[in-house]
Amino acid sequence: MTRVGSWFRSNLWALLAVTVLGTGAVLYSFAFDWVSFQNRQPNEAVDIPRGEPGTLGAGTIVLEDLVVLAGDSDDGRRYDVAEGTDVVVADLRITPDPEGSEDNEDDYQTCDFFFRAPSPVGEREWWQTSYNPTTYPEPEDNGYGCNLGYGEAYDLRTYFVVPAGGADGGYVLASSEVLLPRALRLH
Amino acid sequence: MRKRIPAILALIGLMGGALLLHLTEPSDEQIQGPFVTYARFGEQVEGRNLTWIAEDAYLADRLTSADWIGETDGIWLVIEGTIGSRLDITSPDVSVLVGERRYIVSNRPGDAALGTSLAAGLPQSGAFVFELPRSVLESAEGTRVTARFATGFRVRLDSAIDMVLDLTSLEHKSTVALPQPGVVTS
Q1: Which pLDDT belongs to residue A1?
Q2: Which residues of A touch B (CB under 8 A)?
């Protein structure tokens, strides 16, 4: 035992080096996947209060209004919201890069809108619908899609269908694949 | 020489350990394979993002819906149930494994069968439909078929819901009208 102890003592630095290098090798092998995965999540999202502009890339986005049409309510029935669902109506003001140009391909920059809300199973996420799922009146001059790259400022009304009560405590997430992990949480 | 005995023993131990590690090392498939939950009729099971309740499974020679008639030289396997997404939008990837062969859910019924994307908290009920060769009914493999409900064709480090079926014991119907898929709200 004494000899073994003596051997460990005399090789202490070598054993420490093997332990540290082995642990480092394992961590290193996971690091790339982890960093790459984290960089594809909106981990650096910034909270923007209602009515305030948030900068995403070279453009700005303002959540001007957020209305929840509950299916099981007078408004829901009036606007044909499907029973058991709520429809979140988000009014956004998008101001693209004032210096961007349609002629410059590099200036082209889109973004996506999601609605996220807490739930007992974790934060849930819904994509915007590509159409108005209700008879809730559309603005006369409703924009289309998210263009942050160039052009005039415009209004965009977008919709999210969520389960009844699912919108409580929710927010609109604005993100662009090329700008992640930066994003905006519009409350 | 005696002084070197601990070093030699340590070397033999490390080499033995390395050999043991090498022999018991899980394959890539095992390391990255799915975390499987098994489903049974009438019970809700949950994966990371999918939920599934199987209600019925049967075979049919012919399927119909409002605007589709499904004729086949093979046989239809129909699995009725309710599938949902827990956290975010997902397109369920559903397939049936018969021995080494894998059959993906049929897209022939179009909107008359399940398979479209699911929004979080808005489960859909209806039927998944598979077009199989009749020979599976006579094969030994047909007695143990696995239906897999997942969020991708090749599931890596994610959950999957499996359901084991004996095709030879399922009810065999001649013509069946598919139930119209729809969102289930509580």
Answers
A1: 58
A2: 3-4, 7, 71, 82-85, 119, 121-127, 161-164, 166
- Looking only at Cα atoms, what is the longest distance across chain A? 89
Residues whose CB is less than 8 angstroms from the CB of residue B21 and which lie 6 or more positions away in sequence, other chains included: none
Nearest-neighbour CA in chain A from B6: distance (Å): 6
Which residues are within 8 A (CB) of B35 and not within 5 positions of it... i.e. 6 or more apart? B47, B48, B157, B158, B159, B160
CA distance B179 to B41: 17
In a 3-state reduction of DSSP, which class is residue B167?
helix
H/E segment holding residue A76? helix A74-78
Tell me the ipTM for this assembly.
0.80
Q: Do A3 and B5 touch (CB under 8 A)?
A: yes
pTM of the model: 0.84
Note whether A18 and A26 are within 8 A (CB). no
Phi then psi for residue B147, to 5 deg, are -90, 130
Average pLDDT, chain A: 92
